[in-house]
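for the recovery benchmark. tokens below, seq after
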């Protein structure tokens, strides 16, 4: 008798099969003496479409909403049906005694396997492979310590709740908005409140009215000081007041009234979880969140150089500590050799800054594995992303950054000028890396560091010069992917009600694994655009928010749903109650859209007609430049703007028939360049003849 092993992807299945000595290859699986290893292709089974429940749902009609099936059905995805049949056949083999779920160790990976098992009618025992890296050692150890499959039932329940909630809310509200306003709208329990954050920020920027203010800096010869009021603010909003202060102190002698020396230290940054890595990669490497996840998946799966990517923890568990020297040795090549050398010469005893079992749920922080590092095998993007992970891992093991900070206050004619200096004692972890600021805006009120010689309290200081500097208040900055990820991780700070805001701590919009996908979805549906690093809402996105149900566009409700999903995954929440709440929300949201009396007016209508349905197309910014998109959902035609009428050859059905005939006529010719020229020439001649 043999065990069936179900991996999520063919590449992972091949690695597992090699470790388990399954050398006999067949179509869709590999077999050995004790195991048969097969794979999914991502999802093989998904929730049924609306028209699978009733054919009337093939047409989008407001009167058919909301769609609330009594129970949700599963269906095999047509494009990967061949692999599903392979897996199903293996499940039904008489010599298969049990199964090992070896899909990704997370909520979505659990769903991939369980839905296949449910659709195929699996009744035999099953176990769970739960590993955080793809190295041979991790795979062998994982199979030596397989988990009971039923231990992950709560995780599966949470995954099902998430999928059904997205179906019930997303499909119903999307259809309601599209039918109501006759344009291609999409909505979702995470994407809509995320869009609302971006739109709200844009409104704040557009409504912002800049105000002039003045600051004052005094030169005392061997140091300078910045004016501060009694509350510590350096901004003066009346020019005359600033000029009066300068006139009063000019040419005067001041007194040092305070000298404060402090020994300070900054502990290393925490290790990376997925969201923090995506933020840093966006700031430093200009990588999108989706690109970061894709490159990270390669480092994990193909090169086996990093641990499980889709983690929300920035800590390690105690069982990882004994492996740290091995990991440091494996990565100690090239530029990292000198950095890991001092760590390898001592016994590592990391504290709670890195090791805390209570803050590790399913997976620990992203760190390098025991796999020997071969930098030459990595692409440029892989190398740069690995460098972030490697340096952060080393930095966490380094000592704190230590420095002495001196603060002076010099009083002149009753006005106080503040100065600050810093002397570095030990660069510590900053010798390895440096962190980017967490805040979206620079702290303009902070005193700049300067070199301060020893000063004595009570010393007299001649004021050499004093000047005002004019500045203007700045509007909030637009979101980048880095700052939007932060907002999605902490939506509670955008809630005005203090009690509700406090209760929202720990709630999020989406999960680390889904946030990148949500941002890409907003871009692909033309709700937002990238302007450099900034994310800017389009007219469509701005108009969509007030049209969407109020409950759906507010972060508190959606974040509360995500919190409940987390509780279900931990075995502390009710699946049935959650879905009942989602179904009721779907009813209320559709009812709200039906009753809405608002209008939607696209502002990006072009003069180009859709070659399929004849409607004026919309101009949108796509990934490769401007696109023309048909506003009719049932049509869905899109093309690059530059093609316009020269490629569409008019809007009539006859023109389209000419196009198709000419393409067939020239498709088997060898001289492509000449054929294209002939194609357009002939097409234009036929078009002119009508």
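predicted aa per position
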């Amino acid at each position: 008798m043999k065990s069936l092993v179900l991996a999520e992807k063919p590449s992972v299945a091949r690695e597992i099969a090699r470790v388990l000595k399954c050398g006999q290859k067949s179509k869709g699986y590999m077999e050995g003496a004790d195991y048969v290893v097969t794979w999914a292709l991502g999802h093989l089974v998904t929730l049924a479409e609306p028209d699978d429940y009733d054919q009337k749902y093939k047409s989008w009609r407001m009167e058919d909403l909301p769609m609330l099936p009594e129970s949700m059905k599963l269906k095999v995805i047509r494009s990967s049906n061949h692999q599903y049949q392979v897996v199903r056949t293996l499940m039904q083999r008489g010599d298969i005694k049990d199964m090992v779920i070896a899909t990704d160790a997370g909520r979505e990976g659990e769903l991939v396997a369980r839905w296949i098992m449910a659709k195929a009618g699996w009744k035999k025992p099953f176990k769970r492979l739960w590993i955080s890296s793809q190295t041979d050692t991790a795979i062998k150890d994982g199979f030596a310590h397989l988990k009971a499959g039923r231990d992950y039932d709560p995780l599966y329940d949470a995954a099902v709740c998430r999928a059904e909630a997205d179906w019930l809310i997303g499909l119903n509200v999307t259809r309601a908005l599209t039918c109501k306003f006759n344009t291609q709208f999409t909505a979702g329990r995470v994407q809509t409140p995320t869009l609302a954050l971006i739109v709200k920020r844009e409104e704040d920027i557009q409504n912002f009215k800049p105000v002039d203010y003045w600051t004052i800096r005094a030169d005392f010869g061997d140091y300078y000081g910045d004016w501060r009021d009694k509350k510590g603010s350096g901004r003066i909003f009346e020019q005359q007041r600033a000029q009066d202060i300068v006139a009063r102190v000019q040419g005067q002698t001041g007194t040092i009234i305070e000298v404060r020396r402090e020994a300070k230290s900054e502990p290393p940054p925490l290790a990376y979880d997925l969201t923090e890595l995506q933020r840093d990669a966006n700031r430093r490497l200009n990588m999108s969140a989706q690109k970061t996840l894709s490159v990270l998946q390669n480092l994990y799966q193909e090169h086996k150089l990093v641990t499980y990517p889709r983690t929300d923890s920035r800590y390690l568990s105690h069982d990882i500590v004994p492996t740290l020297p091995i990991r440091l040795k494996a990565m100690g090549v090239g530029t990292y050799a000198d950095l890991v050398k001092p760590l390898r010469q001592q016994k590592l005893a990391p504290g709670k800054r890195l090791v805390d079992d209570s803050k590790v749920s399913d997976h620990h922080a992203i760190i390098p594995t025991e796999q020997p590092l071969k930098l030459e095998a990595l692409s440029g993007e892989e190398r740069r992303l690995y460098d972030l992970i490697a340096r952060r891992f080393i930095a966490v093991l380094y000592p704190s950054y230590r420095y002495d900070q001196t603060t002076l206050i010099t009083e002149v004619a009753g006005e106080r000028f503040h100065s600050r200096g810093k002397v570095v004692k030990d660069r510590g972890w900053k010798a390895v890396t440096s962190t980017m600021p967490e805040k979206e805006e620079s702290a303009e009120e902070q005193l700049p560091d300067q070199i301060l010689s020893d000063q004595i309290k009570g010393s007299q200081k001649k004021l050499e010069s004093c000047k005002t500097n004019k500045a203007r208040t700045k509007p909030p900055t637009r979101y980048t992917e880095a700052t939007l990820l932060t907002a999605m991780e902490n939506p509670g700070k955008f809630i005005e009600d203090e009690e509700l805001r406090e209760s929202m701590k720990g709630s999020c919009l989406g999960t680390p694994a889904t946030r990148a996908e949500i941002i890409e979805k907003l871009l692909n549906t033309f709700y937002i655009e990238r302007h450099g690093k900034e994310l800017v809402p389009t007219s469509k996105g701005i108009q969509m928010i007030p049209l969407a149900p109020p409950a759906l566009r507010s972060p508190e409700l959606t974040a509360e749903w995500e919190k409940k999903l987390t509780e279900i995954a931990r075995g502390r929440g009710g699946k049935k109650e959650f879905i009942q709440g989602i179904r009721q929300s779907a009813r209320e949201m559709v009812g709200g859209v039906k009753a809405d009396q608002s209008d939607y007016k696209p502002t990006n209508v072009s003069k180009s007609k859709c070659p399929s349905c004849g409607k004026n197309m919309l101009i949108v910014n796509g990934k490769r430049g401007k696109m023309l998109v048909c506003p009719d959902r049932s049509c869905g035609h899109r093309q690059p703007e530059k093609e316009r009428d020269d490629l569409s050859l008019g809007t009539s059905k006859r023109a389209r028939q000419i196009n198709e005939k000419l393409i067939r006529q020239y498709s088997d010719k060898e001289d492509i360049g000449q054929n294209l020229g002939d194609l357009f020439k002939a097409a234009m001649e036929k078009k002119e003849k009508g």
